[in-house]
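chain and backbone:
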Amino acid sequence: MVGVTEKLHANAVGLDARAPLEVAALLVESQIEAARVVAGVLPELCVGADYMAASLGKGGSLIYAAAGSSALMMLADALELGGTFGIDSGSVRMLMAGGIPTDCRMPGDTEDETGSLLASLADVSGRDTLIAVSASGNTPYTLEAARIARQKGARVIAIAHNPDTPLLALGDCSIFLPTAPEVVSGSTRMGAATAQKIAMNTMSTLMAIQLGHVHDGMMVNLKADNIKLRNRASQIVQVIADVPEKQAKKALSLACDNVKLASLIAAGNLCVEEAQSLLDKEKGNLRGALGRLVHINQFQG
């Protein structure tokens, strides 16, 4: 039986004979439709985010596993977690069939090779969460990663685009994205990849919010390791603490560019140790720490 990801798109007949503008419109609209599909799995995305946050909260790891185009979407999500949300790189692992490319070659036969996975997942435990992504839901590499992780007690988040597939059956949280057939049949770098990226970005952002790394839509756990991000960190502290730029930068300097600490230092004229104590009492949650600061100020006032 041919899966949806391999079927011909109803409007693709004569595609190569049409005007470029007409083809471009069809390609763009097909991806917009794929994006809309993700709105139908919001409860599942919330469950997946819970699993991810729980793993990091108890010292476990997030492990992404995929092949081909799905792996590229996996990389796009996983590689941003450190800079955006301050997630320790040692807590995130990426397993891509054939390894992460160092040039423009991405051999297709690697998705059938599963021999390396036992070693790659040897230390997986019940503290960990595996995010397994496969458009077809049948990719041998991704299926084997999910099987091994499940046997070792890890939670499995399974993402696929064909219903009733082996990968979805292996998931503790199964996310079925019913995207339409691709305009270029089987080219899941298009609609399916678009939906996958939205799904994974949504889960990881929800996870970061649960972990206290987002405050009023601002990335308060970012790693300010370049000029742009140092400026962003300063702007965040200015907004949260309601202080001028000079004071925000001074606080960031005292806090070694830790935005949460700097916000508390600037907001309450605290020393680093006092700010850290407030954060520790709230398990790193800035909103809770700011609430404690307000209470202290009211009491002293």
Remarks:
- Residues 191-210 form the longest helix (20 residues).
- Residues 23 and 198 are 24 Å apart (CA to CA).
- Strands lie at 62-66, 92-96, 129-133, 155-160, 173-176, 214-215, 218-219.
